[in-house]
Amino acid sequence: MIRIDELLRAYAQGFFPMSDPHDEKVYWCQPYKRAVFNLDTYRASRDALRLIRKNEFSITFDQEFEGVIKGCAAPRKSDSATWISEEIMEAYIKLHRLGFAHSIESWYQGELVGGLYGIAMGAAFFGESMFSRRASASRIAFDRLVAHLNGRGYLLLDAQIMNPHLAKLGAVEIEHEEYMRQLSRALQKKIVFL
Question: Is the separation of the CB atoms in 153 and 39 below 8 Å?
Answer without folding.
Answer: no
